[in-house]
């Protein structure tokens, strides 16, 4: 990788860079490399990764988990995250991908997916205390008291806003994603 990318680099122009000859995507946070995503789209351009002289990638789903233990991974949308090791693996459409990340990156992804799944459980008319208990986050209450604002995530900061009627019954939930998109719940 040093030969391909060099040992010195200027500040990144983008939050991520893709090197098609290596099938490698690099992600940055505050100008520091936080993860490398290896995508094995075909055998010619794929890479092999070794740990202590033992090949760990690419492997089938079954072989990979025989090395690391499937129970230590959280599965979300066919991506398997290991919070402690900060690695993610996936085999969508038979294309193996492996993400190696800095400490906390995968734990944050697991937490973000938990919050996303909880948003699906929030229902119109739900009591404010019940909604807060489900989210398990500390909200900022808007000045008029009609909404709770939840800010979370360091690597991919996002915001959830829950709006309530005067009787503290849930009206709507909006998740503001780090890429500028919004998801409205309940759908």
How would you explain this protein's 3D organization?
This protein has helices spanning 2-5, 61-68, 105-121, 128-135; strands at residues 16-19, 24-29, 32-39, 49-51, 54-57, 74-76, 79-82, 87-90, 97-101, 140-141, 147-152, 158-164, 170-176, 182-185. It has a 7-stranded antiparallel beta sheet with strand order 1-2-3-9-8-7-6, covered by helices on one side. A 5-stranded antiparallel beta sheet has the order 10-11-12-13-14, covered by helices on one side. It has a two-stranded antiparallel sheet with strand order 4-5. It is an alpha+beta fold and 187 residues long. 17% of the residues are buried. The chain has 4 helices and 14 strands. 20% of the residues lie in helices and 36% in strands.
